Amino acid sequence: MGADLLRSDEWVRAMIQDVSSKVGEDLERLCLRGPERKLMRASFVQPLLTTICLGIWRQLMAAGVRVDLVAGHSLGEIAALAASGVLTAEQAVQVSLERGRLMDEAAERSPGGMVAVFLPLVEVQAHIERLAMNECVFVANDNAPQQVVVSGRTADLESFVRRMDEVRPGLCKPLRVSGPWHTPLLEEARRHFQDWLSGIPFTPPSLPLISNTTATLESAADECRMNVARQLTQRVRWRETMDAFRERGVDVILEVGPQRVLAGLARLNGFDNATLVRGVDSLRSVQQVCGDQSLGGGK
Fold first, then answer.
1. 118-128 tens-digit pLDDT
2. Which of 4, 18, 32, 128 is deepest in the core (most CB within 10 A)?
3. Do 78 and 203 fall within a single domain?
4. Which residue, of 119, 151, 174, is where some domain finishes?
C-alpha cells in the first residue's frame, strides 16, 4: 500500500514517520510488508490510510485537477475534511490516529466485526427484527440498494450469519475489520473522541462537502466536528450520499486511495457508463487521470 508514494513523496514519508514515533511501530514497514492482521489494527491502518489518501490528493492538486464536490466513506470523511479545507492534512492524520486508538480500545472491550449482507436496507432491518437481534446487531453501512453492512459482537454476528444462511446461503460475507464499528458499542469512544476534537480547530469547508453521517452538504465547522464524532456510533449513509451526487449532476467520480471499493459502489448505486468512474490509488493512476481527455469539463 502506497509503495510509490513512500519512495518519492517526502510529505507522506514524514507523516508516516511521525505517526510511527507516536504508536511505537514501524508503519512504513508494516504498510509495505504487513502482516495484514497487524496492519488492520485501527490505530495503525487509519492514520496510514488517511496519509496515503491525502498524499494522492496532493499529487492530483499539484497536477491541476479541480473538483466540485467531496465526500468520504467512514474513515475517508476525515481525508475529505482536509480536501475541503476543514482540517489541514497534518491535522487530518492526527485525527485519524486518535480515532483509531479509541476504536482499538473499544474493540478490546467489545470484540466484534462487520458482515456485508446483499439485500436492501429495509429487508436487512426486517430480518434483524424477525430474529429479535435489534439490541445486538446493527446496520453500520447502507452502501447501495443491494448492499448493507451490519456490525456487532463476534458471537452475535456468527449467530446472525448462521440464521441468515437458513434463509438463503450466500447472503452474508464477513469483512476484514478489527471491531464492531458504527454501533452503540463505541459510545464511550465517541464521548472521548468528541471531547478530544474540541481542541482541534475546524474551519468551514471551502469546497462543497457531503457528510456520510447526514448525506447532506455541510457548511458549519462545528457540525463537521460533531459528525466526525457521531460517525463512530451511527451508520454510514453512502447510498444516500451517492443519491446526493446524482442530484447535483455529478458525472465524473474519482476514488482517491488504496483499492477501488467505492468505484464499485458507485456502479452499484446506479452510475452507469455515462458516468466516468476512476480509481486513483498510485502515482501512475494520477498521471493517467491527468492525461484522460474525457475527464475535461465534467462535474
1. 999 999 999 99
2. 128
3. yes
4. 174
